[in-house]
Design a protein that fits this description.
The structure holds two protein chains of two kinds. Chain A is α+β, with helices and mostly antiparallel strands. In chain A, 40% of the residues lie in helices and 21% in strands. The radius of gyration of chain A is 27 Å and the shape is globular. In chain B, 30% of the residues lie in helices and 36% in strands. Chain B has two domains: 35 residues; 78 residues, mini-chromosome maintenance (MCM) complex, domain 2, CATH 2.60.320.10. The interface between A and B is medium-sized, with 45 and 25 residues.
Amino acid sequence: MMNTEKHMDNGNKERHNLIPIIVMAAVVIVIIVLAISYGLGSSSVEATLTVKTYEYFDTVSEVNVYDNLSKGKKAELGKLIDERLKYYHELFDIYHTYEGLNNIKTVNDNAGLNAVKVPDELYDLLNFGIVMSGQTDGKLNIAMGNVISVWNEYREQGESLPPIRTLLNNAENADPKYIYMKEEDKSVFLVKENMSIDLGAVGKGYAAELLAEDLREFGIKNALIALGGNIVALGDKSGELYTVGIEDPEKEDQVKVTLKISDLSVVTSGDYQRYYEVDGKRYCHIIDPDTMFPADYYRSVTVIAKSSALADALSTALFNMEYENGYALVHSFDDVEAMWVLQDGTVQYSSNFEQYIK
Amino acid sequence: MMKDKKLKNELYFIAGALIVAAIAFIIINRYKMISTENASVVIEVDGRTVATYPLCEDRIVEIESYNGGRNIVSIKDGKVNVTEASCPDKICVNHKAIKYNGESIICLPNRMTVTIVAGSSETDGKTY
């Protein structure tokens, strides 16, 4: 009897000592679960309006608005976004002409023949492209449309490389100095016959910037614009930063680095979106103006800048540039940061890029 | 007296444990529910994504899987099931329906996976 009682007492005592530990453990678990669910809850601020389009700029575009809007305003804004995107798309479309609109194709079709009066948005974009050519030492060249079109043709066939002779012939007048801009009547004249303008490296970024301006004019303070991979963040998400993923060139649809940004634009140029392979070598859609061949320094280059037009133009120029030159170029601008993904998957950052990494 | 106190302590302990468990259960369930809003059903064959559908839309799809195999995936009322398959073991068909973020059904012989991936909660945008 005595023995068993003693035993029981001991057992109870042990259990007594365990209670605080179990309670503590339970409290810790609850706190962790709460923290997870709170963290998740706070990051799921819902957009008040989402506009998604599939028909412009050969990509999926999405605009998410985070301001409170009346039903009427939402409908009005949805319509405005679609109209403006359609307009920019038609204006920067090198393949089609549109009734009553002088677009970039009209300018190209009149190469060597006539000056073409164009809407302000296109005039300003061309001016910007010419300025950027100068600032990037020609690594961004909007006048090499005839070279790019040859590459596009061969990429679509997917079998062989374009003959060097064809590339050289088409590159002969691929120089922005042959784009004659006349401020008085906002006209553009391509001086040489065998030249054309391609806006692939600047059009989407410029359109995203224009759309951001349209939203601001409408009174929108917080929105995230994505024209394909061209991101523009207006304001923030109810006091929270936007999270933007940079795609991993090696793993489709997966994120390599996640950024936290507000009031900034992020644009990436990569070799994995459009490319083809000949004899086991990859040839991407970004053509180095100096070699007339696809650049192969990097898998991708991402640029963060205030202006989406600048970010777009610089990401292409940096893609075509050796690292040392690119690094110097990035640091010659205020408030521009860049991330390079090298061929082996390693990453290089400009001096302040990492402050945006989540 | 002593016995009463012990009993009381044990009751407190049991009650406390029950409350903690109940709270945890509610929170975990809510967490799962929140996370499948805007979720997608991602179907992969041999490591490649072959299709992505919204979890909230009902549909039945036939997937051409590895080596001439085939799986029929049904999305209904926010739940995903494999209803038919050409594989010998039928593990995927016998798998219970999935509905929470991160859950998946795998058919090894056909190298096919169906996964529920939470929608927009990860990032707000992507640059590529």
